[in-house]
Specification:
Elements lengths: L1 H6 L1 H7 L2 H23 L10 H10 L6 H20 L5 H18 L25 H33 L7
Helix pairs in contact: 3-4, 5-6
């Protein structure tokens, strides 16, 4: 952080147009939707890295939608949205996870469906590993990390005035 502050990289972020960052964030959201859509509907498909390929593959397998898994996904999503609206002091995603878990447990207890779950989580501490300093790894990872870093800095810089107004502070951060 101190190095970033001294290098004045933040001033570079303010020169970039807001639509660039909005488009970047929207593109990332579309990639996430494309990667998760088949999971939400319970369709067993391989993970695709290309949005168009993922959506095409999903559309080609619409007949394979698992209704019970879709029900659990819909209940989870609706409960999270309801929790965000009416239970503002509770993490809304926790509300969704609990509701989805309860629906899954009821479906399996009544013998109506066997909804796929991730199973039990590992309880052991992961082993320590050494960071890979391979130049090829850094070359493929650095552009994405830099783009994400700029996006986060932009979001922080552009949201600062709104937060200041909401909390009663001056816009310059004092």
């Amino acid at each position: 952080r101190p190095a970033v502050g001294r290098s004045r990289v933040c001033s570079l972020v303010t020169c970039l147009a807001n639509p660039v960052f909005v488009a970047f964030t929207a593109g990332a959201a579309l990639l996430i939707i494309g990667a998760q859509l088949h999971i939400f509907f319970g369709i067993d498909l391989p993970q695709e890295s290309n949005f168009v390929t993922a959506i095409t593959s999903f559309v080609n397998h619409l007949g394979s939608i698992a209704p019970w898994e879709t029900l659990v996904g819909a209940v989870t999503l609706l409960a999270a949205l309801a929790g965000r609206r009416w239970l503002s002091r509770m993490p809304y995603m926790l509300t969704g996870l609990v509701a989805g878990g309860v629906v899954t447990a009821i479906l399996q207890w009544r013998g109506l469906a066997s909804v796929h779950t991730i199973g039990s989580l590992p309880t052991a501490v992961p082993l320590l590993s050494v960071t890979d300093f391979n130049p090829q790894t850094w070359q493929t990872t650095a552009p994405n990390a830099l783009a994400l870093h700029f996006n986060c800095m932009h979001q922080g810089i552009t949201s600062r005035p709104h937060v200041a107004v909401k909390t009663g502070h001056q816009k310059d951060g004092t």
